[in-house]
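Thread amino acids onto this structure.
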């Protein structure tokens, strides 16, 4: 056609790249990779009308205002649950036997597996409600909450540890901080159990108690080599031989710190957008791999270790879910509707026993949501951080209280949870306060000698 110049290929490509969209006439459409890179900014602009985890943290000097309440509440609920089982006995009084292939671990199983009234691992769909009592049905409806307790602790830990690492990414600081937070108080608790509680309450002669290999092995708890038994201790308790059941989480917590240290060593824990994306993709890829493994072999890769807790390896996932939420805090809206949906999804997954690997994502959001709320009345009541002390001392105090009660009242006396629990709570809070003021707080003060200013 006359008057029209020939269009080069370059010009033609440029013309096709320009689109006439309503409100965007002549605007250049980004390529697919560009749109992917711009997606977080698009999400952030869409969330501008809501408070995000990042904005709430910024208003509270980088701290989640509700995490203090959550730590203590979770610790006290776990203490109460353990006390209930320790008073009533394992397996609701059904006959059990000890597994002898795990020395020092005080692991018991049902003597007759068929004696179980119903499969507590199968979810609500596996139950026959016509054969269950009302109390049993209520217990099964509440079971997702029981299973969530330790998982929420690990998600909370991942969130807080990551925030600390972002502020101060120095490797030496990270390592020493973790050691000072865990080892001093743990060392004192393990030593008190072995050198005070054991000699006072063991049913063996003191010379034999001190000469047993089990006595020396118990000190391995200080470095994460878990042992639950001390020679001759708590042999006739309803939950026999178990000195401190809470220590089962120690190895998994150490693995979380090892992986976090490796990421910090690789300079991957950072607020830089590129690194945040890589960590998010890595955790997402691990979750996809776990989903595939679960579908192939659900028994081996079951997220639930038993009817009361998540599998140890999945707790490591929970830690990294917390890490991902902290790294992406600016994209995490804090809204009660999302919290309600997440809680319902988590409970539904547990009740129906489907897609279990995804449960941790919803549980982590619930953890972060509660952590971003304010509980000023609770904070005025608990000005000290007693949660770690409750974790360390709650179970040994429970077992010692039951043991002494049986000796005073007689082995056939029926123990009452209404009497034992208040005694245990008061004693545990007292020891936790001792641990915080005498051991933990002074140990944490040592940080001023090596920690760089954030």
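Threaded sequence (454 positions):
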């Amino acid at each position: 056609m006359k008057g029209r110049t020939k269009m080069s290929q370059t010009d033609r490509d440029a013309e096709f790249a320009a689109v006439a969209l309503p409100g965007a006439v002549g605007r250049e459409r980004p390529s697919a990779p560009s749109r992917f890179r711009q997606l977080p900014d698009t999400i952030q602009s869409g969330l501008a009308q809501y408070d995000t985890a990042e904005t709430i943290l910024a208003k509270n000097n980088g701290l989640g205002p509700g995490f203090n309440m959550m730590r203590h509440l979770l610790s006290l609920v776990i203490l109460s649950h353990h006390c209930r089982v320790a008073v009533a006995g394992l397996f609701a009084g059904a006959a059990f036997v000890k597994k002898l292939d795990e020395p020092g671990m005080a692991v018991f199983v049902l003597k007759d597996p068929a004696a179980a009234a119903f499969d507590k691992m199968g979810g609500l769909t596996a139950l026959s409600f016509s054969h269950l009592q009302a109390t049993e049905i209520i217990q099964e409806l509440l079971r997702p909450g029981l299973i969530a307790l330790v998982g929420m602790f690990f998600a909370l830990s991942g969130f807080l540890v990551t925030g600390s690492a972002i502020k101060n990414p120095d490797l030496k600081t990270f390592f020493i901080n973790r050691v000072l937070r865990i080892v001093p108080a743990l060392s004192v608790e393990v030593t008190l159990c072995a050198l005070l509680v054991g000699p006072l309450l063991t049913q063996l002669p003191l010379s034999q108690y001190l000469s047993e290999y089990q006595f020396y092995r118990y000190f391995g708890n200080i470095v994460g080599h878990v042992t639950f038994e001390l020679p001759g201790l708590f042999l006739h308790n309803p939950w026999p031989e178990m000195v401190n059941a809470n220590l089962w989480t120690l190895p998994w917590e150490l693995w979380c710190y090892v992986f976090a240290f490796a990421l910090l060593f690789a300079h991957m824990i950072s607020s830089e957008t590129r690194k945040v994306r890589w960590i998010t993709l890595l955790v997402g890829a691990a979750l996809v791999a776990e989903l595939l493994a679960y579908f192939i072999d659900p028994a081996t890769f079951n997220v639930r270790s038993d009817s009361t807790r998540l599998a140890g390896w999945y707790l490591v996932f929970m830690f990294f879910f917390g890490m991902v939420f902290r790294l992406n805090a600016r994209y995490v809206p804090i809204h009660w509707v999302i919290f309600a949906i997440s809680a319902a999804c988590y409970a539904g997954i547990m009740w129906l026993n489907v897609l279990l690997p995804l449960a941790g994502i919803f549980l982590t959001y619930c953890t972060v949501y509660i952590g971003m709320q304010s509980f000023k009345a609770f904070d005025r009541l608990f000005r000290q951080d007693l949660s770690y002390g409750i974790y360390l001392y709650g179970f040994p105090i429970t077992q010692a209280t039951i043991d002494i009660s049986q000796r005073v009242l007689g082995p056939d006396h029926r123990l009452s949870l209404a009497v034992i629990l208040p005694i245990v709570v008061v004693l545990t809070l007292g020891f936790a306060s001792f641990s915080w003021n005498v051991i933990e707080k002074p140990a944490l003060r040592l940080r001023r000698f090596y920690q760089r200013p954030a």
